[in-house]
Amino acid sequence: MGAGMIVALASALFVLIWSTGFIVARALVPHAAPELILAIRLTLTTLLLFGAAVYARQALPRGRRLGLHLAAGAMLHGFYLTLSWWAVNNGMPAGIMALLGALQPLMVAVASVAFLDDRLPGRAWGGLAIAIIGVGCVLFPAIERSGIGSITIWPALAGIAAVLGMAAGTLIQRGAIAGDGIAISGAVQNAGGALVALTATLIVGDYRWDGNPVLWIGLGWAVLGLSVAGLSLLVWLVRHQGPTRMSMLLLLVPPLAATEAWLLFGERLGPVQLVGFALALGGVMLGRSTRPSPHQEIAEPA
Question: Which residues pair with 209 in a beta bridge?
Fold first, then answer.
């Protein structure tokens, strides 16, 4: 099998795995509190990655670097997943939440202009404007209508805040900690996320867990499929294809997630929403087609 075929198969497998991120959330939240699921998931992932780091003899970051890793994980895994899973638990369709997650690179680009003195070409600003219009076309019809497929304003705001949190975590990760080992970085950052999810569990006070087989299967998939296999494939593909081509590949995730949500849960998008979906992805593609910063990182946990 040639190298090109291996990359193609790895790419297809990654997109399939990554698209299930919010499908898992949609399937599990009827059976347990989302914050509790995430606290358990992130803790188990921390232990697995820490074991891998010990095996690979990767040293634990100390001092300020350790704090930065924890902060990045708190934003990337903690606030992003906790807020987005809460949104899904309160009516946000899985496909729309996946679409919001696809906006993260553009949010990072804008934040880099504001806080890191980066320069953003006009094409990226145009892409951002188109993407925002597209997201509006997707969200507003769902907010305005009632019944099946409707969402309230709070899940919509939580979803947007989740993406902003992920963008903040990505900016932290672009700094001095970018060169640390993958396994130990993942372990510490998942620990930071677990602390946020555990705190959210204690604040919400919802410890619902019905023990349904779907719950155990979904939790196993979230840890081994998404957090271990999915992230390993992401890193491998970034190293073999580069961040630009990998970021384009991630654009396949939202439409696939929307299709899976339609098949599994009957989630549907109206005509205006479908147009908005296409506009949002087109805007992200336009914005991502610019030359990336040499320190650009892809960080889109699911």
Answer: 32
DSSP SS3 for 32 = strand
- Tokens at residue 215, please? 């719950």
pLDDT of residue 300: 57
Q: What does the pLDDT look like over 111-151, one tens digit per residue?
A: 777 766 677 777 778 888 888 888 888 888 777 665 555 68
Compute the distance between CA of residue 218 and CA of residue 24 in angstroms, rounded to an integer. Answer: 6
Encode burial over 196-221: b for 16+ CB neighbours within 10 A, e otherwise. Answer: bbbebbeeeeeeeeeeeeebeebbeb
The residue type at 210: D
Judge contact between 137 and 276, C-beta under 8 A: yes
CA distances from 248 to 96, 135, 165, 241, 243 (A): 18, 18, 21, 11, 9
What tokens does 226 get? 């998404």
In this structure, are residues 81 and 38 in contact, taking their beta carbons and an 8 Å threshold? yes
Chain centroid offset of residue 64 CA: 25
